[in-house]
Amino acid sequence: MAGNLKRRIMKKIVGIINMLCIAILLYSCAEESVGQTPVDNMPPQNVTGVQVQNTPGGALLTYTLPDDEDLLYVKATFILNNGQRSEVKSSVYTNILELQGFGDTNERLVTLVSVDRSQNESEPLEVKVQPLEAPIFGVQKELKLEAAFGGINVTYNNPTESNIVINIDVMNEKNEYVSLEKIYTKAKNGVRKIRGMAAEDTKLRYYVSDRWDNITDKQDITLTPMFEERVPAKSIEPMQSHSAPVDWGWTLNRLFDDNTTTGYQSKADGYWPAYFTFNVKQGPVKLSRIRIQQRKDYEYTHGNLKRFRLLGRNDYPLAGAQIDNESNPEEYLKWEPVGEFESIKPSNSSVTTNEDLEYARQGEDFDIDVNMPAYKYYRVEVLETWSGGLFMCFMEFQMWGRPEGFEFPK
């Protein structure tokens, strides 16, 4: 009897649970239908009062939205210079459409339609736009290519901060132009340095393009890079690091080992400005440029150098703990200024972009004034790091130039 009673009770419990599940399911289905817009075949009204503001390579359209409850978005359709049809959509929560990608200043038609939640489209409305000159043409007009040590410098201004590509081609031995460098940037301005070129007359061709296949006219120029050679790492002898004692076993010699995975780090409690000294064993060298390799995965942070100065001399420097203008002015004044430099972030943004990372990871070059004399001993004074901390940490310090008394190849 007791067993039968238990079975009957269990059946009732299971039945109640099943009924509750069905009720919950029905309620959920009912809830899902609440607020859904019914499908219909009635198209919405189109926008009205369209105002056109022509912009570089595009236009801004403002308008009044129709009073349709199920309006979803407004769509603009137009043809780009490459013949492709382009669409831009703007949600019901705004009354602005931004058009981009035009490669000339010709007047053209843009078709506007309103679209509702049933994907019905309104009657089309055509408006005329006449874009201003596309950003690439302004960049091309001010683009400057100049001969530099070991290559060329490319200086650009991009006031609209548009995504552009600066294309540099070089003529090869078959008298054909081939790609030398493509500079992808949206920075407002900058200087890119192309190295590894021979000191000979070099025919170059340059132009600017964008992601819509618009390109400027191609310009030809002949430049002759100035001769330089790398100062071999084995010719650089680190000396006492003075105010910058070693931390974490990252010794000074690791700055001069051609290995970007190892570097030098000073103690955070070291004297500031921190500095270190090194000797060029082969004799005085007239420098053309130096290169700093930041610590990977810590770009623009940590102890990477932001501001520093380079000093030089030819008599043996006094070793000591604090050799500066206050503690030992006579010794300090024996150092001659070579240059003061500042590391840059191309985007100039608080957020590090892919362009910033690429720039840092290829090594940042700093050009030396061509009028600077040759020195045997050099000293780096670190004035500021990217983190603002009182220590430095970076991976490589490389130098290019030519020995004292060097004669250029004929």
Architecture overview:
With 410 residues, the protein is mostly beta strands. The chain folds into 3 domains: 48-129, Sandwich (Immunoglobulin-like), CATH 2.60.40.10; 135-223, Sandwich (Immunoglobulin-like), CATH 2.60.40; 229-403, Sandwich (Jelly Rolls). The protein is 13% helix and 39% strand. The chain is built from 4 helices and 25 strands. The chain has helices spanning 2-33, 135-142, 329-332, 354-361; strands at residues 48-55, 58-64, 71-79, 85-91, 96-100, 108-116, 125-129, 144-148, 151-157, 164-171, 177-185, 189-194, 202-209, 219-223, 229-230, 236-238, 264-265, 274-280, 285-293, 305-313, 336-342, 364-367, 377-385, 393-394, 396-403. A 5-stranded antiparallel beta sheet has the order 16-18-23-20-21, with no helix packed on it. The longest helix is centred in the first third of the chain and has 32 residues, at 2-33.
Question: What does the largest sheet look like?
Answer: 5 strands, antiparallel
- The CATH class of the largest domain is identified as Mainly Beta
Number of domains: 3
- Pattern of helices and strands: HEEEEEEEHEEEEEEEEEEEEEHEHEEEE
Straight-line distance between termini: 117 Å
The SS-based structural class is mainly beta
CATH superfamily heading of the largest domain:
Galactose-binding domain-like
Whole-angstrom Rg: 33 Å
Shape: elongated
Low-confidence stretches: 26-34
CATH topology term of the largest domain = Jelly Rolls
Number of helices: 4
Strand order in the sheet with the most strands: 16-18-23-20-21
- Topology, number of strands: 25
Classify the beta-strand content into a percent band.
35-45%
CATH architecture of the largest domain: Sandwich
Mean pLDDT rating: 87
